[in-house]
Amino acid sequence: MRLDLDTLRGFFQAAPFMADLGAEPTSVEAGRVRARVDIATRHCQHTGVVHAGVIAALADHCMGSAAQTLAADGHWVLTAEFKTSLLRGASGERLECEAWVVKPGRQVSFTEAEVYAVAGGERRLVAKASGTMAITKAE
């Protein structure tokens, strides 16, 4: 994958569920991706905080994208497994996710992510995630 923000934006838009969530990449470098979701009512559960599924999906896609930046040409990254630890309820104006590759590989890469909620200029860590990404040959 080319390492530029326009390419990463296209990568996010090509994933219909991420486009529906409104996930938008904000920066990219080799092995590292940052993205955001502007929080809307549709992202929240009955208590008014962001649904855990939104947080987990954002972390997962960012981790996969970070691994994709290091994948060889002609290969795709697919999530083999991931874990998300929710640290507190998320509310505010937006979610920001930072994801990075901890250990790259030819067949499997290990990744991590942190998700923050931004409210009134304050940024609070709301989740940590880790994921194992399978590197597959594109068909």
Question: Which helices and strands appear, and what pairs or packs with what?
Answer:
Layout: H1 5-13, H2 16-21, E1 24-29, E2 32-38, H3 52-68, E3 75-86, E4 94-103, E5 108-119, E6 122-137
Antiparallel strand pairs: 1-2, 2-4, 3-6, 4-5, 5-6
Structural description of this entry:
The structure is a single chain. With 139 residues, the chain is of the alpha+beta class. It has a single domain (5-137), classed as Roll (Thiol Ester Dehydrase, Chain A). The protein is 23% helix and 45% strand. The protein is built from three helices and six strands, in the order H-H-E-E-H-E-E-E-E. The protein has a six-stranded antiparallel sheet with strand order 1-2-4-5-6-3. The protein is globular, with a radius of gyration of 14 Å. The two termini are 16 Å apart. The model has no long low-confidence stretch (mean pLDDT 96).
Short description:
With 139 residues, this protein is of the alpha+beta class.
Mean pLDDT across all residues, rounded? 96
Radius of gyration, taken over Cα atoms and rounded to an integer in Å? 14 Å
Query: What is the CATH third-level topology name?
Result: Thiol Ester Dehydrase, Chain A
Report the biggest beta sheet as strand number plus sense, adding barrel if it closes. Answer: 6 strands, antiparallel
Domains counted in the coordinates: how many?
1
Side-by-side strand order of the widest sheet: 1-2-4-5-6-3
Q: Give the beta-strand count.
A: 6
Please give the CATH architecture.
Roll
Count of runs of 4 or more consecutive helical residues: 3
